[in-house]
């Protein structure tokens, strides 16, 4: 058997790969083909006929442009907030955590072992009209006396920010933890003040983590519909809500499929621009590895 | 000044951790609530009855059971398939490895709603009725990439001299694999399996698109959120949380202690 494996050594990697990649081909790539076909079809559920209906794309985008822009806006703000919350936290764990790094990391991940929907329902309780948070904000006049948080954009963005935090903290932590402390010491030996050594040494070295974190937060946030559904109103609905209802309630599959593709395309374009801004394709490779 | 800066960061990190736990404490607290109406949103009074009767709500226990079955099966399958891919990618140079990497990477950067929707169109086109098996297919699919990434991280730091030593001592490839390689990468495989289990039991979006009439725990919560949220949902959520975090905590403390003993 061993000799047999040896003689056909070039076959071994393919033998190892085939079952898993076949699964991904059949249940990830092939579905994309059908989604594309549906996006270019016409008709009523359950019979859709494929006829290169490109107008599905332009029609659905112009009909739902508000929700599109809103999704990218909400996801962008939520990602920025998540970065602002996570970077100092990840930095603190990586540089000050000492022996308890893993314990702190566990504390960061722990809340996400409560199912997504239950967490979001908990935010519904926290932000509800008579909650402690709302009454406190009313008392200090941040909110008007009949001001509310639930069913506003702020609530949806707050939910998005919270729900994807581990996807931000973990890559940031990994890249910060790998930084050789001697480099930071070298900078201060060369008379860099600590803000300067942070900006010139630590921050650039952690950029792959920032890139991966932003990617892994922005993508699920832009496609989300649960936060807008539970914490918002139709005025806060995102493109995910539209895709969801077009598919599962209205059963207008072509429109929903076209919207899905536009969402994927928009995300891809933004990711590429972002990679450019951060500077390198090396970063993409870092995120992929 | 230095002192202030140092402690500003400490305080910030502390507040961030508190923030992370605010909703969790709400979930735990409301599992002891005794709600008057159908919704468990305002505090009415303390009771233990939700905990003593965790399944006293029709449909809840079967939903939890379906979730656990799918999480077990999908993490098992995905761990096997993903580990094999990781072995191929780390151990061999072959044509098509770049394409394979891409095939692993893209599902992780695709919005869940797009994956769920595309599977829905596949099952519709192939006239496969949706239910338990389609949920299982979908969960195996999205778990494979995460398994590959986790196991690969472990394999990259692997000392191949250990395998060569085994071969020098007369072990053939298969014996070497099962007696040397597998035990050494087992922690990575276990971590991947646990991650896959956690992702599966938490998944809502992809499941929602491909469940047919089958109800998993997250789907049950979604349905309940529209009509009535029984406190039993908080009980189950808290129980899963306690088991998962307790296990991980024990692991962290154990590793810490071992590291100290070795040091």
Secondary structure topology:
The complex is a heterodimer of chains A (289) and B (263).
Chain A: H1 2-7, H2 12-39, E1 41-44, E2 47-50, H3 55-63, H4 65-96, H5 101-109, H6 116-127, H7 132-139, H8 153-163, H9 165-177, H10 181-189, H11 194-222, H12 226-231, H13 239-248, H14 253-278, H15 282-288
Antiparallel strand pairs in A: 1-2
Helix pairs in contact in A: 2-14, 3-14, 4-8, 4-9, 4-11, 9-11, 10-11, 11-14, 11-15, 13-14
Chain B: H1 2-30, H2 49-52, H3 60-91, H4 97-108, H5 112-125, H6 132-156, H7 161-168, H8 173-202, H9 205-210, H10 217-227, H11 232-262
Strand elements of chain A, count: 2
Shape of chain A: globular
Structural class determined from secondary elements of chain B: mainly alpha
Distance between the termini of chain B: 35 Å
Q: State the low-pLDDT regions of chain A, or none.
A: 1-5, 284-289
Number of helices of chain A: 15
> Which stretches of chain B are low in confidence, meaning pLDDT under 50 for 5 or more residues running?
none
How many β-strand runs of chain B?
A: 0
Number of helices of chain B: 11
> In what range is the share of β-strand residues of chain A?
under 5%
Characterise the protein shown here.
The complex is a heterodimer of chains A (289) and B (263). With 289 residues, chain A is an all-alpha fold. In chain A, α2 packs across α14 (253-278) and α11 (194-222) crosses α15. Helix content of chain A is 74%, strand content 3%. Chain A has one domain (64-288): Orthogonal Bundle (MetI-like fold). By secondary structure, chain B is mainly alpha-helical. The interface between A and B is large, with 90 and 91 residues.
């Amino acid at each position: 058997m061993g000799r047999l494996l040896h003689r056909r050594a070039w076959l071994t990697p393919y033998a190892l790969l085939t079952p898993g990649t076949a699964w991904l081909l059949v249940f990830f790539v092939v579905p994309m083909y059908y989604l594309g076909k549906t996006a270019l079809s016409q008709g009523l559920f359950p019979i859709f006929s494929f006829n290169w209906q490109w107008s599905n794309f332009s029609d659905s985008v112009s009909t739902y442009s508000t929700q599109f822009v809103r999704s990218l806006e909400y996801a962008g703000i939520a990602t920025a907030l998540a970065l602002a919350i996570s970077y100092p936290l990840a930095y603190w764990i990586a540089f000050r955590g000492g022996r308890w790094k893993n314990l702190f990391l566990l504390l960061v991940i722990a809340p996400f072992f409560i199912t997504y929907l239950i967490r979001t329902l908990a935010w519904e309780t926290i932000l509800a009209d008579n909650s402690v948070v709302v009454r406190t904000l009313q008392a200090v006049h941040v909110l008007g006396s009949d001001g509310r948080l639930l069913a506003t954009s702020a609530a949806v963005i707050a939910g998005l920010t919270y729900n994807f935090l581990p996807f931000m903290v973990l890559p940031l932590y990994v890249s910060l933890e790998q930084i050789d402390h001697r480099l930071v010491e070298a900078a201060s030996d060369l008379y860099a003040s600590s803000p300067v050594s942070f900006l010139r040494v630590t921050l650039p070295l952690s950029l792959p983590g920032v890139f991966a974190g932003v990617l892994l937060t922005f993508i699920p946030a832009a496609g989300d519909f649960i936060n807008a559904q539970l914490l918002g109103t139709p005025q806060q609905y995102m493109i995910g809500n539209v895709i969801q209802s077009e598919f599962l309630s209205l059963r207008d599959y072509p429109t929903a499929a076209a919207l899905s593709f536009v969402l994927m395309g928009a995300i891809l374009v933004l990711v590429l621009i972002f990679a450019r801004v951060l500077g390198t394709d090396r970063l993409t490779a870092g995120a992929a590895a | 000044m230095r002192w202030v800066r140092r402690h500003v960061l400490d305080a910030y990190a502390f507040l961030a951790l508190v923030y992370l736990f605010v909703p969790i404490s709400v979930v735990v607290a409301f599992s002891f609530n005794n709600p008057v109406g159908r919704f468990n949103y305002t505090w009415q009074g303390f009771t233990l009855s939700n905990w003593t009767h965790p399944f006293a709500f029709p449909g809840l226990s079967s939903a939890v059971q379906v979730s656990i079955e799918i999480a077990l099966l999908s993490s098992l399958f995905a761990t096997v398939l993903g580990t094999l891919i990781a072995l191929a990618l780390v151990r061999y140079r072959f044509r098509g490895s770049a394409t394979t990497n891409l095939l692993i990477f893209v599902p992780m950067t695709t919005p869940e709603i797009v994956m769920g929707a595309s599977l829905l169109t596949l099952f519709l086109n192939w006239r496969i009725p949706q239910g338990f098996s389609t949920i299982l297919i979908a969960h195996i699919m999205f778990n494979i990439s995460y398994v590959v990434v986790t196991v690969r991280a472990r394999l990259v730091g692997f000392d191949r001299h250990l395998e060569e030593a085994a071969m020098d001592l007369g072990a053939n490839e298969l014996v070497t694999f099962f007696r040397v390689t597998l035990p050494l990468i087992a922690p990575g495989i276990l971590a991947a399996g646990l991650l896959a289990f956690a992702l599966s039991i938490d998944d809502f979006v992809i499941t929602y698109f491909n469940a047919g009439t089958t109800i998993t725990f997250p789907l049950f919560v979604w349905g309940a959120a529209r009509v009535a949220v029984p406190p039993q949902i908080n009980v189950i959520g808290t129980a899963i949380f306690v088991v998962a975090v307790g296990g991980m905590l024990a692991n962290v403390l154990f590793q810490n202690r071992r590291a100290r003993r070795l040091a």
